[in-house]
Amino acid sequence: MPAIKKVALLVTISVILYSLFSFLASGLQFKILSFNNVNILSDIFFTPDSNKLETAVTDSSAVFIQTDSILVKGEKSFSNYKFPTLITSFQQDTTMPSLLHLDAKLLALKQGKRTKIRIAYLGDSMIEGDLLTKKLRELLQAMFGGCGVGFVPVTPNVAKFRTTVSDDNSSNWRDENFKNATEEAKKTLFFSGRTYYSNNSWTIIKDLTIKDSALIEKSLICGATSGSSINYNDHGLIIHAPDKLNRILLSGDYSNQAKLVVNDNVLPVYGVSFEAPTGIYVDNFSFRGITGVEINSIDTSFLKNIDQHNPYDVIILGYGVNLLYKPNDKNFTWYRQLFNPVLDKLKKCFPNSDIIVVSTADRAFRYNGEYKSAIGIDSLVRLQARLAFNNSLCFYNQFATMGGQNSIVKWAQKTPALASKDYIHPNERGARTLAVHFYNAILNDYNKYIAAINDSSKTN
Amino acid sequence: MPSFDVHAFFNQFLYDPKNPLLFNNGFFVFFFAIFIALYYRCRNNYVLRRYIFCFFSLYFFYKASGAFVVFVIISAIVDFVLSNLIGKSEKKGRKKFLLILSIVFNLGLLCYFKYTNFFIRTSNELFHTGFNPLNILLPVGISFYTFENLSYTIDVYRGNFKPVKKFSEYLLFLSFFPKLVMGPIVRAHDFIPQINKPYNISDSDFSKGFYLIISGLFKKLVISDYITLNFVNYIFDNPSLHTGLECLFAVYGYAIIIYCDFSGYSDVAIGIAKWMGFTIPPNFLSPYQSKNITEFWRRWHISLSSWLRDYLYIPLGGNRKGELRMYVNLMITMLLGGLWHGASWNFVLWGGMHGVALALHKLYKTKGGRLLDSEKYKHFTNAISIFITFNFVCFCWIFFKSESFESAGQMIYQITHDFDAAAWPAFFNNYKTVLGMMLMAVLIHAIPDNFADKVVERFKLAPLPVYIIIFFVFVLVYGYFKAAEPVMPIYLQF
Questions:
Q1: Does the distance separating the beta carbons of A420 and B2 come in below 8 Å?
Q2: Which sequence spans correspond to the domains of chain B?
Q3: Could you list the pLDDT tens digit for every one of the 494 residues in chain B?
Q4: Interface of B with A in 211-230 (CB under 8 A)
Q5: Pairing of the two strands A174-177 and A194-197
Q6: Which residues are registered as beta bridge partners of A88?
Q7: Any B CB within 8 A of A61 CB
Q8: Where does chain A hold its CATH 3.40.50.1110 domain(s)?
Q9: Could you say which of A105, A164, A405, B213 has the lowest number of CB atoms within 10 Å?
């Protein structure tokens, strides 16, 4: 056979067979190995069965929504969780404020009272590098006052792209953390998830957020000691700290740097805090790869000590993305069982704080060659909202705020991009966008609060 | 029974910006089959056969880039007319004028589409001019067919090639669909004489074409796409999130990707051309086996490097105007060659680094440098030379691939300051398949060409069903990896 005939025959036969296989695979739903993924007829043939399946899925979620919108306790509405850019305590009347404790203190700050607001933002790699929290801090401090980066761990482990602090430290700090500590040691891990022990180690931390000369209080956050010798900015100090968690003022001056040498090898050291005497502060507590259940291993008495000595007006819990580890996971009920005790514990230990559960942001997997939102994401967001709802906490839907389904795909593919090509992490620009939305949500809540108290004063 | 969607069926024939035509689209399979059938039927009617080829090529281009197909036609008309005028004119001055006209037209089009926003950005950064970037889309393949147009008119001007008399011949040369989107850059004097030859290929051509098409698709669709999506993309996107170990492997991974992508596409183009009776010279010759940077450029993207040599370096004076001028010419060629790859300073720097390396190597050789030339320890010194050359090329790829200098810097910082060799077990466990793919690419790259030729020669008389089975095995492998569970960054695990 002449070779040109072979070419024509080979191509024709292959295409006929290929079409036939594709027809069998897409039309008659035969599973021919991995053939469905390379079906050449999939764009023009639709199988009734798969359509039916899709409708069924939509129906079931519709049913769910209906049960959800039934008002609970007469005035709460679970379906509030679906709103983007809203911090909700699930009150049906969304003109009412949700962060009552924070709003009252924001008002006090606005009225010029000398008070301090501290926000703890706990999360996973989504808040790493202080990207989101940096912008949030900037916006809040610009509006309500305050100067300083807040808490900084002894070795800010991803300082390379953390632009808010610079650090230099000896390599001999022993780091006990959520991942490597014994159960006993985990009892006294701070929100940062890390305790540092010195071996005559040193660290120099510089707060780079301070632009003008400002009076900054540098405080050591550490565990109990009956007398430890440390060296701070070249001055020897003996510190006494009776409780499991202590905040010890090291100096209040115009320097933005803390140089610390710790001579006591058994003193648990957590970090240094940079704050002006008044204003609002956002502490970044990022820990890669965790889901938040790790907090449960921290002792109740230790948490109460935090509330006592380093109190937080708001605790934000931004987890979830690490639960979406497998593309086809849809069931996260196990997480409910593990995270519920965490919320319960925090509520009890921080009775005066507003606690906000922030949902997972969008993340995508490749399904049949195309990036799409994880198929379990809706059920995870709903579960996180349900946990907040059941514990009477506040909720913020980060997923909806980003734009809902497939938003991370759009973010990553946009020019300029708002997210990394891992289809998980917003980049600096994306993190800034999220921070602005969150700030606006806080500000809206505050404005509702102001409106509410104005209304009530009018009625009185 | 499945329902047939008539609307979707007709839409398949229109350009879809979200799904442009490539060799791996389902549509291409039908396109190619119909084309082959028609071409085969009309093989003895040269005129009709040429028109069919032109029509399918232009339609391919339309499916790949929509209305931009007009630019291929316009530039074919302009260059056809100008080249004929050049051919006819007796006066040197007039010839030169027409040539300049052609160069201005071709480069003007390329510059407008490819570099306008680059100039705007640069001017804004340097002089704070505050111009708004324009909303310009880059027509697919413009970098390639612009160079083909230029080499053609320059050859006609130099008297090396007689201008073609039939417009359809020129249009086919320019729009020949196998090479339209990603090259190779074909020369008119190689290609045009083949247009009106009887359609006849040997058994070796048949099996070689098959080998090139399947191995090219495998390199591009299986190896390159898998490593890109499951590893390299997210590491390069944010290097500081990852350990230096991962970053280093991502750089090697990228070296593999760009080779598999580019050479894979070229192989498919060359293979299809071979089946249609056209010989296109090889574009890549196992470039990472080069023992020095000069050799690398003789083996890497040969159609581009030889184009740059013949139409930029030599006209600039090449090595005929003294040593200093030679180095200057070399640098200009490499800097512009870098810029050809994309409108960003990263590419210019990449070209510049290669230029400096080429210059240093040239200098070293002219000064009689013979280090690593030992005959006695040939294998050993060759291995060292290949290792150094490969790593230098990889280092340059960091700047080629990174979005910005800053991100390239981060990549290098991670590799040099945060290597974290202790992450190896986690790395190995997580990226087993990726590493397997990389190893496979290394093996494919290591196959000597004459060995491949020998195997292909043996296969040439294999019965048709053998080819069909190989094709479907490839389709299934492609399908498997296309939908394989994605590999995630390891930092999610600790």
A1: no
A2: 14-195, 203-284+370-493
A3: 567 778 888 888 888 877 788 887 888 989 999 999 999 999 999 999 999 999 999 999 999 888 899 999 999 999 999 999 998 888 889 999 999 999 999 999 999 988 988 889 888 888 888 788 787 788 888 889 999 999 999 999 998 888 999 999 999 999 999 988 787 999 988 899 999 899 989 999 999 999 999 999 999 989 998 998 889 988 998 888 888 999 999 999 999 999 998 999 999 999 999 999 999 999 999 999 999 999 999 999 999 999 999 999 999 998 888 889 999 999 999 999 999 998 889 999 999 999 999 999 999 988 877 777 777 778 888 899 999 999 999 999 999 999 889 889 999 999 998 888 888 888 898 899 999 999 999 998 888 778 888 888 888 888 999 999 999 999 989 888 886 766 666 655 43
A4: 229
A5: antiparallel
A6: A395
A7: no
A8: 68-146+279-460
A9: A405
- Measured between alpha carbons, how far is residue A11 from residues A5, A8, A79, A458, B48 in Å? 10, 5, 56, 83, 21
Interchain proximity B5–A4, CB inside 8 Å: no
- CB < 8 Å from B in window 351-410 of A: 365-369
Amino acid identity for residue B65 in this structure = S
**One-letter amino acid for residue A194 of the chain:** R
Q: Spell out which residues of chain A touch residue B410, defining contact as CB-CB under 8 Å.
A: 160-161
B203 contacts chain A (CB < 8 A): yes
Active site residue B341: yes
| B204, containing H or E segment | helix B203-217
In B461-490, the residues whose Cβ lies within 8 Å of chain A are 464, 467-468, 471-472, 475-480, 482-483, 485-486, 488-489
Q: How far is B179 from chain A (nearest CA, A)?
A: 19
Query: Which of A166, A200, A193 is CA-nearest to residue A274?
Result: A166
Do strands A257-262 and A45-46 pair parallel, antiparallel, or not at all (unpaired)?
unpaired
Interface check B29 vs A, CB under 8 A: yes
Residue in B189, B242, B301, B341 annotated catalytic: B341
A27 touches chain B (CB under 8 A): yes
Would you say A307 and A349 are in contact if contact means Cβ atoms under 8 Å apart?
yes
Q: Do A420 and B471 touch (CB under 8 A)?
A: no
Q: Do A3 and B2 touch (CB under 8 A)?
A: no
- Report how far residue B313's alpha carbon sits from residue B362's, in angstroms, rounded to the nearest whole number: 15
Q: Nearest by CB to B29, which of A7, A40, A369? A: A40
Class of domain A151-277: mainly beta
Residue in B with minimal Cα distance to A287: B494
In B, residues 370-429, which contact A (CB 8 Å cutoff)?
Answer: 410, 413-414, 418
Model ipTM?
A: 0.86
